[in-house]
Amino acid sequence: MLKVFICGGSGYTGSELLRILALHDEVEIVGVTSEKSAGIKVSEIFPAFFIYKELKFESLQIEKIKSRADVYFLALPHGKSQQVAAELFQAGKKVIDLSADFRIKNASIYEQWYKTQHLYPELLKEAVYGLPEIYREQIKKATLIANPGCYPTSVILPLYPFLKNKLIEASTIIIDSCSGVSGAGRKAEISLNYCEVNEDFRAYNVAKHRHTPEIEQELGFAFGSSITIDFTTHLLPLNRGILSTIYASMNKDLSTADAIEILRQQYQNEPFIQILPEGEIPGIKHVKGTNYCYIGTVVNPRTKRLILVSAIDNLVKGASGQAVQNMNIMFGIDETKALRSLALSP
Amino acid sequence: MLKVFICGGSGYTGSELLRILALHDEVEIVGVTSEKSAGIKVSEIFPAFFIYKELKFESLQIEKIKSRADVYFLALPHGKSQQVAAELFQAGKKVIDLSADFRIKNASIYEQWYKTQHLYPELLKEAVYGLPEIYREQIKKATLIANPGCYPTSVILPLYPFLKNKLIEASTIIIDSCSGVSGAGRKAEISLNYCEVNEDFRAYNVAKHRHTPEIEQELGFAFGSSITIDFTTHLLPLNRGILSTIYASMNKDLSTADAIEILRQQYQNEPFIQILPEGEIPGIKHVKGTNYCYIGTVVNPRTKRLILVSAIDNLVKGASGQAVQNMNIMFGIDETKALRSLALSP
Amino acid sequence: MLKVFICGGSGYTGSELLRILALHDEVEIVGVTSEKSAGIKVSEIFPAFFIYKELKFESLQIEKIKSRADVYFLALPHGKSQQVAAELFQAGKKVIDLSADFRIKNASIYEQWYKTQHLYPELLKEAVYGLPEIYREQIKKATLIANPGCYPTSVILPLYPFLKNKLIEASTIIIDSCSGVSGAGRKAEISLNYCEVNEDFRAYNVAKHRHTPEIEQELGFAFGSSITIDFTTHLLPLNRGILSTIYASMNKDLSTADAIEILRQQYQNEPFIQILPEGEIPGIKHVKGTNYCYIGTVVNPRTKRLILVSAIDNLVKGASGQAVQNMNIMFGIDETKALRSLALSP
Amino acid sequence: MLKVFICGGSGYTGSELLRILALHDEVEIVGVTSEKSAGIKVSEIFPAFFIYKELKFESLQIEKIKSRADVYFLALPHGKSQQVAAELFQAGKKVIDLSADFRIKNASIYEQWYKTQHLYPELLKEAVYGLPEIYREQIKKATLIANPGCYPTSVILPLYPFLKNKLIEASTIIIDSCSGVSGAGRKAEISLNYCEVNEDFRAYNVAKHRHTPEIEQELGFAFGSSITIDFTTHLLPLNRGILSTIYASMNKDLSTADAIEILRQQYQNEPFIQILPEGEIPGIKHVKGTNYCYIGTVVNPRTKRLILVSAIDNLVKGASGQAVQNMNIMFGIDETKALRSLALSP
């Protein structure tokens, strides 16, 4: 049994790790931290997780935890994750960091968008961006995984083959993304109250969302040179899920069928990518509670633009499910273990 | 591999069987029917269920299906299920009927509440009421299971030990239940439209819901004599889940702790029943997507009434999950197989 | 123009007063307080209320406000309202208090349920309980109005004629009420976050909700002697509205038609009470955004119990709308002024 | 009193006319049609509209209705509206048509997108496109109003001044719009069921929505030459509201403040347009239940694109409210009469 430790277990990505790993028969959760809930049973904070009978949240103290597990998931706030990751890394432990701290290779770009100093820039080159569909081989050998952001996962996967094959004009990419409320985290804020979000829909962080540089970095790597995008995020009145609608002008006169074929070629052996047939467009309900990414596409014959629509569950493929997928790959476990659930529908 | 056939696969209980059984590694789905969608692939109607790649819906023709499987789930409308169940039963097949057709032992009571004739009253004594927590031994040997209704499951489980032990006044039972919209089935009706249900909450079928005689029958069996209840149902603006709040005057001066202890004694070895500690009351979010029934209780010291609150997912413990639990029991499979998921929360 | 001042304008009942009074052509809002938002424009906190162009929230200082208006609405927390009400009362001002501070005539019962001392018990006899359908004549002459609670409004109105006419057994009353989330107020609490409430439904404060003594007091006044009830509250995943389902055993053999007639007799001249015909049961969508109370009733012929179902908007008839109705009555304005909107449906 | 007749009163735009006109003190509703509900009282189909006590739905028969009113609102399906409009027009009546039948000046474009023949092409030049912010003077004198579509209203208003002043590259316009479910109408369809829409979000009619030619026509008129756009629509899990996020490359180096100033200049005297200050972006909650259009804007300094975000209530400013606004203008009534409600928030 693989020994797993979760740093930060009382937020939505931490609790989602608890939910997913409850069905994983090759791992054992040996500890979970929460500063606010230290000393309290997991099942008291989350009655739905009654199976963790005696497991209690504990305070995060590196010295006390660093010898207890084989792999550490960090579901900590951006900026706080760095040091924990660095110390566990230096202790020779495998670390899967769900924060943004090691996603952006250029420390000064990180500092500019996250308004916090990066204290371990030398570790950035050790970190592997944990998107298995692109970096699977590197993930197998990685010690430190920078688990991708939710929006970036939903954006990079559909665009990747078109950029890699130089089929679209990189300067024309416009990304319109919508996320359920769990993407904002589990915190006490009036703007996240039920009555403030329900029956509302709004754009937020227009032209300044912090996932922008992460998306631009990975799209740039695929394309072979730097890319600047328009990326607008919106808050959906639902719990889970991201839908991204992406526009780009094409370099070549492709049909919708051609575009689908390009996606199918790229992802034909991927267990978690579903390319929909012509005429079908994904919705969040296809992926709710699952690790799948569904992609549909249409080429608008009137404007010659490629339109891509992708759907993921922000807490699963967009965070904790992808983290477990990375763990499975790192430890030679069946990549789909504990991740085969179909969407809870309705 | 156990061969499974689903009659009626395009409604919510049928599709829920497809969802649950996708994770069951000891069964194989050999066929699924739908009159409306006959000839169409399951994955076309339900893109979320892409794994059923080549499986197509077919029309229900007893002669063509009766030799193909070991067990048949009937997710057919009340009244239509009878004949299919009877013919499969006569062909020696195991049948798990999710309709109400074999739940009520007295055919004339069935006919009075369901406004339809019962054509196979002789089969009623063969049918076992599929509530494992009460009838597990009979289920093991059963050929025909009458899978319980969603509301009755949520009501019988909490009341059972108090009636069996004659701790409450049977004539004072009042049941106030609320269900998510999937309980109404998957059909085209303006009253079920999003805009008609969202931001609304209403009582329906007041004093005449058809689950009344089923509840009264099973409570009466537990109590040892007949019982008449008030049972009011309400429509909640959410997809899944039932919460029942139940009131009864007590015969004995019990405390809340006593009431919890009585529930714990009854259900201590049950894998799917969770009795909450004093001060905790269940919510639908504890059980969404799961086969669990959560029960909490309070004795009101001012009125001496027992108040029980239970939560289930109407499509899982209230229908398809309980049906799979029954199948597992009938075939000697681990009772919790394919049913161990924790609640999707949030 | 009547000069109106609102103490506590940044919560949901305060902002609802701003919304309703925007359409009232005989009043002028001369000031509004908020400690958190003092100095900030109303239209900055609530962009939907752009018409209050220059109006700014100010800090509540009695000396500065007590000569500025003819009537003061207090939308302050329980316990904090007392002193403000008392000082304005002593300054000879009309006060409509939306808190619970002056609703309960017996100060020790107030103190027991609200866990706070009552500093002005001598004012309790001055306060008129602001339910116009029962106390209209007293309201006309009142200086201090104790505006009713949301749940009590939804419970007292349907039960009143049956208790007054002694048609039900007072000891058998059971009230099962469900409220939208705005009833919990506008505050930063994880338990009120969108993801915690959406797709969930739970009972809360079982057997100990603080509206219990208010309901018992007014039902007792109607009945002529004291009454003890079971009252259970539930949190609905929607913004606005309360639905109460009420059960009581009858003293007389009434039919459903009789029960409807009793309600009609009582409320035939009331502008805001709608009694539904036999076979119709109200839903929250009938009253959303309005000052109406809809009531439906069924007598269960099998149990001889009276079942009443009532629907109100908790922020309008359950709070701010009723407060404006009281103001209209106190100042001889048409009672329905600014309160005639029909339900926003869908 | 102006006599008003509503053709098609049982859908969402028809019932919204009933809701809005209930507060209009200069009109009297003399009749309302519904084929499905002919002979039934309005208050029976819509209990929330109890004030229409004796008004019954009737079947639409031109001969019987054409002399009864001064103005006719047509809330009929596309294709069916044409003939009714034509006959009432020929009878000299004022007609406000909420369908698409007279919005598109080129009959062949109409026929191509709506797949139905236009039988009265000669009337197209008589019809005035009922967007008061652009065509107020023509509306004053019009006999036949083509009331704008919901999405077009939300798109044309923010883009208009930028196109009129040639500040953006017309070929780069991308419009990403999201609508609440009432936009799909009130009809029995499984895809509109609560469980199918709730917790889901999907794009639909990608690159082929029928509002495309209407938007292109009006944007083209503003710009002075024809325009082709990308326009993608999505279905939001909420009842009311449209949010459009619009992208275009600029011709000039404008700042966000400049863009706001251009909108303010254009709309400074408009009673129903609110331009938000820098840093504020509208949400649907600002306009729910109201006739307002809120507009916010950001210029992305990294891409030099103009990003416009607009919010309207699809049933009010996007349909019935705008229709009443047009009626007020046509008959010399205060343009804001019956349309002054602020947003129901929360």
TrEMBL record, chains A, B, C, D:
Pathway linked to the protein: Amino-acid biosynthesis; L-arginine biosynthesis; N(2)-acetyl-L-ornithine from L-glutamate: step 3/4
Signal peptide stretch: none
GO molecular function list: N-acetyl-gamma-glutamyl-phosphate reductase activity; NAD binding; NADP+ binding
Protein's cellular compartments: Cytoplasm
Residues in Semialdehyde dehydrogenase NAD-binding domain copies: 3-142
GO CC term, one of those recorded: cytoplasm
BP GO terms, sorted: L-arginine biosynthetic process
Cross-referenced Pfam families: Semialdhyde_dh, Semialdhyde_dhC_1
Top-level lineage group: Bacteria
Enzyme category, top tier: oxidoreductase
Enzyme Commission identifier(s): 1.2.1.38
Residues annotated as the enzyme's active site: 150
InterPro entries associated with the record: AGPR, AGPR_AS, AGPR_dimerisation_dom, AGPR_type-1, NAD(P)-bd_dom_sf, Semialdehyde_DH_NAD-bd
Assigned protein family: Belongs to the NAGSA dehydrogenase family. Type 1 subfamily.
Main function: Catalyzes the NADPH-dependent reduction of N-acetyl-5-glutamyl phosphate to yield N-acetyl-L-glutamate 5-semialdehyde.
Name of protein: N-acetyl-gamma-glutamyl-phosphate reductase
Naturally occurring in which organism (per UniProt): Thermodesulfovibrio aggregans
Gene, per the UniProt record: argC
